[in-house]
Every structure is written in C-alpha cells, then in structure tokens.
Specification:
Elements: E1 6-14, E2 20-24, E3 27-31, E4 39-47, E5 52-61, H1 83-102, E6 124-132, E7 135-141, E8 148-150, H2 159-175, E9 189-196, E10 203-209, H3 216-224, E11 230-237, E12 249-255, E13 259-263, E14 266-270, H4 280-294, E15 301-305, H5 311-317, E16 322-327, H6 330-342, E17 348-352, H7 355-364, E18 371-374, H8 383-391, E19 396-401, H9 404-416, E20 419-421, E21 425-427, E22 437-444, H10 471-482, H11 488-497, H12 521-533
Parallel strand pairs: 3-5, 10-11, 15-16, 15-18, 16-17, 18-19
Antiparallel strand pairs: 1-2, 1-4, 2-3, 4-5, 6-7, 6-9, 7-8, 9-10, 11-12, 13-14, 19-22, 20-22, 21-22
Helix pairs in contact: 1-9, 7-8, 10-12, 11-12
C-alpha cells in the first residue's frame, strides 16, 4: 500500500473525532465524511507507521443514515450523519473513553440525551475575518491551516447570525476596512462575534480588532441598521500576535454592554466575554439532569464550584436552603451577583477565589455541605482540589464535564479516594460536532470499609499551571493516533510556537554549545493536532 493508491473497503468503526475507520490487511485508514457500514472507494492521502488517512472518492454502498445537502462548517464534522447516528456515535465514544481509563464495563454509560432539532442552535458565533486578493472572507478555518473558508450559511449557528455575517462581510468590502493579517501582524479586524438571546429579541455584535481603525464609527452605524434587534455593539482590542481571540480591553460602541436571556425562568445578563452555554435548549436538559443526580433536599447546603455567571447556582437555589457559588474570575462573580439580585434570589452567595480554599473556610465555620457541583473547563479539575474534597468528606459530587477524557481521569482519582462511580449521562450540547457533554454522580463510600490507596501522578508532568493537558497525555495521544513517539522537547517547541507557556528547561539546553534538535514537520503536525484536541489552540 502506497500514497495515492485507490482502494475499496467497508467502514467498520469511528475514531474519537468522528472519522470513519477502514482496515486494509488489518492496517487502519481514517477517512472523513463516511458512516459506519458503508462500502467505499477511497484514495490514500497519507501513510504513517501504524495508520493512514484516506479521502473518499465514491460511496458504493450508501448508508440509510446518511444526510445529503448539509455542508460541513465551523467544526460541524458529523452533519453527514442523521441525528440518531450522531447520538449513537457519542454514546459509544464516551463508553470507549470510560472503558480505556477506568476498565471495561466498570462504569455504565447511558444513551445520549439529544434534541428534537439539531440545527441552528448556537446562540454565539465567533467568525474569523480574512482578506485574500482583496476578497473579504468570513467563515471558518480550513482544517490544519490558517486559511479562512468563505461560507454563506452555517447550519449549527442561529440563522440570524448567518444573515448578519453576510451583511457585515459586504460592509467590510464596501467601506474597504482594514483586516488583520496574522503573518505581517498588520491590519485591524480579526473576528466578528454575535450573541443572541433565546427569544431572538436581542442581538449583540462584537468587533475584535488589533486596533481602532478608520471608518469605525461609520461601520458601527451601518451595523446598527442591519437588524433592529441589535441592542449592543462592542469593540475588543487584541493587539497581541496570538491565536487567543480576545484581548484585555473592551469598549461599548453602541447601546448596552450586555444582552439578557431567560433560562429556566431565570433572567441572565450576558456580556461580550461572559461564559454562557451556546445551546439554551440543551442547557436546561443538562442542568436539570445535574440537579436530579444530586438528589437535593429543601434543607441542603451546596457548593457550585466553577460557577461562572451563576447559571447552575441560580437553578439549584430554587431547590435548596443555601448555595455557595465559587468562581476565580472577578468579572464573572460580579455578573453572578447581579443575576441573583435581578431575579430576587436571596439564598445564594457568590464568592471570589479558589474553590478548595473557600470550601475549607466554609467547613472551618462549621457549615455542613451536602453536595458539591463542579463544572470545570476542558482541562478538568486539579488533582489537589479533588483530594481536598475527599479529605473534607463531601458525600456527593456532581461532576459536569465538557471533556469525557478529563472526566474519566478525574473519576479514576476520585475512585482511589473512596468514591463510588455513578453512571455517566452524555448530553448532546453540540449536534453536528463530535463534542459531547457528560454528567455523573460520585458518592463517598463508607470510610470504615474504605482502604486508602495512594495514586501516583509523577508521570503526569504538568507544563504549567495554565496547561490543559500534560506532556504525557499529549505523548499518548500522538502515539495512539499517529503511531510514533514525540519528546517533551518537541512538545515544548510547538507549544511555544503557538503562544503557550512552557517550562524553561524544555526549551533550551543547559549546555550553551549543545545543538538543540528542532521538531520535524511531521511530528509538529501531530503535536498540533493534539493541542487542538485538548483545546489548547483553536486553529
């Protein structure tokens, strides 16, 4: 088998990111836009030691689960599957992750909770802007590149955003506005962002730019006339050469600096950079299931760690005696307090700081905590935080996660600390994509029957406090997917290239005369793929 060979085969499985798997003499080939069970003709486009990549040329035996006419946009790589197949894929994906980390069938994975309609659900869109040969492009980044693919319609974002995207592209062209070029680090407009509330009565437009630019006021004036539901136009300045979208400075150019949304009967103020779930319909499903698992009682006192702007906290406050919401981002705590005040919810208290520190303080004040709800970022919880929870004898931990892999890792830690692992409930927050949200209940075992086992984490060499994946996890990911090993030095070089902080001793040699090897292109591509998988970079 060689590159450019044309072969046939049947799709027998999926990878974690939804690629179809075809085996040729037991050698796996990964192929986009195919469905399990289909018999296909394909071309080999890349070969590695233990796997290859192919491109489908012809579907000989077409699956009845195939959907035609929905283009892949902005990460929506499963839109060729019918929704039932998407849900089946996500359930199986979560089960495979749990089996690999926790042991085969050690944790039950329930069927994924889906939507009635998996289209046009995203209430937030962040759209890159690029100018090529005087053509303004808005859409999404071509995979494994910095090139923006121009699109007219994305089937997962609100249709209001599609119209505004096309109109603003025309305005940028009409006014000949300055567009950012990441190679030269010149130009202004980098991204356009839209946020719309669930009733579609309020829209916020965000302009993310390297700097203020000529005709900005005229641009804003014309934007406000595109749709009479636009109540806010914001400017965010990001003057750094980085893949991070937002900068530190935000300015209100028109109307309010927020929109309002109602979720589960609770009204929320949402600013440009507020964390707020992008799928309001499934958010209610997710939070309701989380509270159901917690089995809350009217006289309970609970913690909502990583509370953000207070969405779960305010949901839970309607069911319990007292909620403490904890968040390390000051702006989010401010928004959470405002949301509680605006909804006349008085039994919730929002506290600024690290969850483990505040929980210790509350317990030292003889406050009995009945449950803790955690909803961390993709990197999961710090091990120290989980150990603190166990040491404080928190009986119930409801874990909400946007990353099944880090959930499985943290479940393994909690199991070693004396917690029973409950069933895992996937919730489809992101139809059309391979992402899935998961929830589980971790219950403290009887300490008299529990034997402590120390979990050694020495091999999990953290690159920095802000890292989202350890070097070891990146190495394992590359080995599994690409079939070769990568060194910590190479990982550090790629991380530095994409603006991530790395440990000093991984970037330079102590011997000034020693030549430091440079990461080969093939291994850089594999490491970059891993960084994208762990959401450490986004292009």
């Amino acid at each position: 088998m060689q590159k450019n060979d044309i072969l046939t085969g049947r799709v027998i499985d999926y990878t974690h990111d939804g690629l179809g798997v075809v085996k040729v003499d037991n050698f796996p080939i990964f192929i986009e836009d195919v469905i399990e069970g289909e018999f296909i003709e394909f071309k080999i486009i890349k070969l590695k030691k233990n796997l290859g990549y192919g491109k489908v040329l012809n579907i000989i035996d077409v699956s009845d689960k195939r959907i035609e006419g929905v283009p892949r946009t902005s990460g929506a790589n499963l839109v060729h599957m019918d929704y039932e197949e998407q849900l089946r894929f996500k359930t199986k994906k979560v089960q495979n992750i749990m089996n690999k980390t926790l042991g085969t069938n050690s944790v039950k994975v329930l069927p994924t909770l889906g939507m009635k309609d998996g289209y046009h659900y995203r209430n937030k869109s962040v759209i890159p802007v690029q100018k090529v040969d005087n053509e303004v492009r808005m859409g999404y980044y071509k995979p494994r590149s910095h090139d923006v693919i121009n699109i007219e319609k994305c089937f997962i974002q609100y249709d209001e955003h599609n119209k505004l995207m096309n109109d603003i592209r025309s305005l940028i062209t009409e006014l000949d506005l300055s567009v950012y070029d990441e190679v030269s680090h010149k130009g202004a407009i980098r991204h356009i962002m839209f946020r719309t509330n669930s009733s579609k009565s309020e829209i916020m437009v965000g302009i993310i730019a390297k700097e203020r630019f000529k005709k900005l006021n005229e641009f804003v004036e014309k934007i406000t006339k595109l749709d009479d539901r636009i109540v806010s136009v914001m400017l965010n300045i990001n003057d750094k050469k980085t893949n991070v979208i937002f900068g530190d400075k935000t300015e209100n150019l028109f109307g309010r600096d927020y929109i309002t949304d109602t979720l589960g009967g609770i009204e929320f103020k949402i600013s440009l950079r507020s964390f707020y779930q992008v799928n309001p319909i499934q958010t209610e499903v997710l939070y309701s299931k989380a509270l159901e698992l917690a089995e809350l009682k009217e006289d309970d006192t609970i913690i909502d760690a990583y509370c953000g702007i207070g969405t779960i906290s305010l949901f839970a406050a309607q069911k319990v005696k007292k909620v403490y919401g904890i968040e390390i981002v000051e702006a989010a705590v401010h928004d959470a307090k405002e949301n509680a005040k605006n909804n006349n919810i008085t039994n919730v208290e929002f506290l600024l700081g690290k969850s483990e520190d505040i929980i210790k303080k509350l317990i030292s004040q003889n406050i009995k905590l009945d449950a803790v709800i955690v909803d961390p970022p993709r990197k999961g919880c710090e091990e120290s935080f989980l150990r603190d929870l166990a040491a404080m004898d928190i009986e119930k931990v409801v874990y909400v996660s946007c990353n099944p892999a880090t959930l499985a890792r943290d479940m393994e830690i909690m199991r070693s600390l004396g917690y029973k692992l409950g069933a895992v409930q996937p919730v489809d927050m992101f139809p059309g994509t391979y992402h899935v949200e998961v929830i589980t209940l971790l219950s403290k075992l009887d300490s008299k029957k529990y034997i402590s086992v120390e979990l050694l984490m020495d091999d999990m060499d953290l690159t920095s406090a802000g890292s989202k994946a350890t070097y070891k996890r990146i190495q394992n990911y590359v080995l599994e997917k690409f079939g070769f090993k990568v060194s910590a030095l190479y990982i550090a070089q790629v991380e530095r290239k994409y603006g991530l902080e790395v440990r000093e001793h991984y970037t330079i040699s102590r011997n000034e005369n020693r030549k430091v090897p440079k990461c080969p292109v093939e291994k850089e591509e594999a490491i970059l793929d891993a960084l994208k998988y762990f959401n450490m970079v986004y292009y």
